[in-house]
Design a protein that fits this description.
The structure holds three protein chains of three kinds.
Chain A (H helix, E strand, L loop, with lengths): L10 H26 L3 E3 L3 E6 L3 H8 L6 E9 L4 E8 L2 H9 L13 H27 L5 E2 L3 E4 L3 H9 L6 E11 L4 E9 L4 H13 L3
Antiparallel strand pairs in A: 1-7, 2-7, 3-4, 3-5, 3-6, 4-8, 7-8
Helix pairs in contact in A: 1-4, 3-4
Chain B lengths: L1 H22 L3 E6 L4 E4 L1 H7 L3 H4 L4 H4 L6 H13 L3 E3 L1 H4 L20 E9 L5 E10 L1 H15 L9 H18 L3 E8 L2 H8 L1 H18 L5 E4 L4 E7 L3 H17 L2 E3 L2 E3 L3 E7 L7 H17 L5 E3 L8
Parallel strand pairs in B: 11-12
Antiparallel strand pairs in B: 1-2, 1-5, 3-4, 4-5, 6-8, 6-11, 7-8, 9-10
Chain C lengths: L3 E5 L3 H10 L7 E5 L2 H11 L3 E5 L7 H11 L4 E6 L4 H9 L4 E4 L4 H20 L1
Parallel strand pairs in C: 1-2, 1-3, 3-4, 4-5
The chains are: A alpha+beta, B alpha+beta, C alpha/beta.
Chain lengths: 216, 320, 128
């Protein structure tokens, strides 16, 4: 009996998860084009095992490319349980308004101030993108997830951002799946992170093995 | 034998759920993949005034053409494709079904304020066959919120916004300008010889003038503009998306209106005029304080050169 | 008659999934390639009747590998497998001479049907 801590997931489990992510994100890409009429490219996801306390740093490191960011966060729950984070450079919302908002009339602010409009569009796209990826992963693993409403966090709003960063329990570990997404024709790219909470890691391991068993 | 037991059990379940479906204090609509209504609960009947039988089997869009927009359709597609949930919050959308709202706490909403959720309903082997929309009436909560906000940000006497709120808004507008480089302007307003009104006719008359002036201006500006009582007889308008030229035009309208008005208080007929300084934000103003200072300088200029007039702060005044 | 099948995919899991989704009763002889380049080498060595080819792979992607394989044998039967099916990628691989394109995860039923189609095609050629 060694005293070394077991790795959270075995190499084989990681490989299964990798392939499931490849399939899930690929399927999601194909369907997204139908849903939002925008061609989204998702890079091959990579999987990291982190302590949750390490996540804020990881996010900071990953998004260093952008000086200012907006994060859309959405929690999902069920057997598969965690949160999706979509990190946009902070001009993405404005770009997306032009693409998606019917009427697309950014110059008429009578109805809604622009930052609300921007928030709204980021939340909607975040909700669709996170839902697409999480939904496809869940489908492959034979489960169903429920979502909480998305929220937008700007890092130019210090209170919001630090509150969000503080919400990660440093004593927990998480499986983090990271991909770069690109809106092909708009030259917008950002990060998509899926975090699996510690409490569903056990379930995830079982689901991965069950998935593979059907191929034995 | 066992079979009838099962049947009976499901019968009881169906009876329970169908009653809950009609008793629950939220709207529930079930749509099929073509957006035809499959179920319409009693709450929906009650607030829409449309009986279930009239709407079932028909497209929801037929009854609510306002749902025929890109956003709603995108969200429907994402529910069907991924089993997504969509959220239409009152904060951002006010409502998706235009139902009559009851007057709450004296706050008048045109329509019931709603939080709505949309999501998948699955059939055999988890395939998504229907969409549900849940509608919650949050009019009362929204009214409370509005009341609280008003108590906090309005000047008790005139109903204009208070100075603290104005400061928050000008900061926000300043940040927005930095981010989107959208124009915005402010107008500083000072009622001429106000002290005289107070001294001659008493504070009540003075208060009446302040309140009347405030409503005159409020009637002249857009919904997105902010009128605040900045000090005793000093007011300030914040005009988003407005350049100096248009802001001066607004100020000129206000000047003219106030000059023409006769304010009737008890048996008095009072007349007043107003001096105004206008400033548009430009790159040399590194903070909102500087912008306020510029408008104030222009106001001072207007006072100094004969009152009852509008002066805009332009770069060229810098040396005055 | 299909006897030999080559499976080219950089993910060991994906190779395993595909391999075990092949019709069990046919006792195909299978070989694996771990990226595009390796797939082309194995194609030459193994001379398979049918090749399953993934698109996103390191070193050499599926498009390039497909091109190379068709250069080596203009009658090579290649089934492209990918998770992200877009009209554009379908058009590209068909132009490069793929037999068909299957969406990942490929169900054993659709694999079986595809292989049957190939058998029909091969027996026609043999009969001519």
């Amino acid at each position: 009996m060694s005293h070394e801590t077991e790795p959270i997931v075995s190499d084989e489990e990681k490989e299964i998860l990798q392939e499931i992510m490849n399939i899930a994100f690929g399927n999601a890409t194909a369907d997204l084009a139908e849903v939002i009429d925008i061609y989204v490219v998702l890079s091959v996801p990579n999987i990291e095992i982190l302590g949750v306390g390490a996540i804020p740093n990881f996010i900071e490191k990953s998004v260093k490319v952008y000086s200012e960011i907006d994060v859309v966060e959405q929690k999902f729950w069920g057997d598969f349980n965690g949160s999706g984070l979509l990190v946009f450079p902070n001009n993405a919302g404005r770009e997306l308004i032009n693409v998606l908002d019917e009427g697309g009339d950014v110059d008429s602010f009578e109805a809604k101030p622009i930052d609300n409009l921007e928030k709204d569009i980021l939340m909607e796209i975040g909700n669709i993108l996170i839902g697409a990826c999480v939904g496809k992963v869940a489908e492959l693993l034979g489960t169903i997830v429920t979502y909480s409403p998305p929220q937008v966090i700007s890092n130019d709003n210090n209170n919001e951002y630090s509150y969000f960063i503080d919400s990660f329990d440093p004593n927990q570990s998480a499986i983090l799946m990271k991909t770069v997404f690109k809106f092909k024709d708009q030259d917008i790219s950002g990060l998509l992170l899926l975090l699996t909470n510690q409490e569903s890691i056990e379930w995830l391991k079982q689901a991965l093995n069950a998935f593979m068993e059907s191929y034995e | 034998m066992a079979k009838t037991g099962i049947k009976c059990f499901y019968g009881v379940l169906r009876m329970i759920f169908s009653q809950i479906f009609d008793m629950i204090n939220s709207g529930i609509v079930i749509l099929d993949r073509d957006l035809k209504v499959v179920k319409w609960n009693r709450w929906m009947e009650n607030y829409s005034k449309i009986p279930a039988n009239d709407v079932i089997g028909k497209s929801i869009i037929e009854f609510y053409p306002n749902l025929d927009n890109a956003k709603f359709k995108r969200n429907v597609k994402s529910v069907l494709a991924f089993g997504n949930f969509s959220f239409f919050s009152q904060k951002l959308h006010k409502y998706i079904f235009p139902f009559k709202a009851l007057n709450t706490l004296g706050v008048k909403f045109d329509y019931m304020q709603q939080n709505c959720t949309m999501g998948p309903i699955r059939g055999e082997n988890n395939s998504i066959e229907y969409i549900y929309i849940m509608v919650q009436d949050v009019t009362e909560v929204a009214a409370y919120e509005q009341k609280l906000i008003e108590m906090n940000i309005k000047d008790g006497l005139t109903g204009a916004y208070n100075r603290r709120y104005f400061e928050t808004r000008i900061k926000e507008e300043f940040a927005r300008h930095k981010r989107y480089s959208r124009p915005f302007s402010i107008i500083m307003q000072d009622i001429d010889y106000f002290k005289k009104v107070n001294d001659t006719y008493g504070h009540q008359a003075g208060d009446f003038i302040l309140t009347s002036f405030s409503s005159s201006v409020a009637g002249r500006i857009r919904n997105v503009d902010i009128l605040a009582r900045y000090g005793g007889e000093e007011f300030c308008c914040l005009l988003p998306e407005t350049n100096l030229k248009s802001a001066k035009l607004v100020a000129e309208h206000v000047r003219h209106l106030v000059e023409q008005s006769i304010y009737k208080f008890k048996n008095l007929e009072l007349k007043i005029t107003v001096s105004q300084g206008v400033a548009e934000l430009n790159p040399e103003m590194s903070s909102h304080e500087i912008m306020l200072k510029r408008a104030d300088d222009a106001l001072y200029e207007a006072k100094k050169t004969g009152r009852n007039k509008v002066i805009g702060w332009e770069e060229k005044n810098q040396n005055t | 008659m299909i006897k030999k099948i080559l499976i080219v995919d950089d993910s060991p899991i994906a190779r395993k999934m595909l391999n075990s989704s092949l019709p069990k009763d046919k006792n195909y002889e299978t070989m694996f390639g771990v990226n595009g380049e390796d797939g082309v080498v194995k194609f030459q060595e193994f001379q398979p009747d049918v090749t399953f080819l993934d698109l996103t792979m390191p070193i050499m992607d599926g498009y390039k590998a497909l091109e190379e394989i068709r250069k080596l044998d203009k009658n090579a039967i290649v089934i492209v497998t990918t998770a992200d099916i877009q009209p554009k990628s379908i058009a590209t691989v068909m132009e490069l001479g793929a037999f068909t394109l299957l969406k990942k995860p490929a169900k054993s039923k659709s694999i079986e049907e595809t292989l049957e189609k190939i058998e029909v095609k091969l027996s026609k050629i043999a009969g001519e």
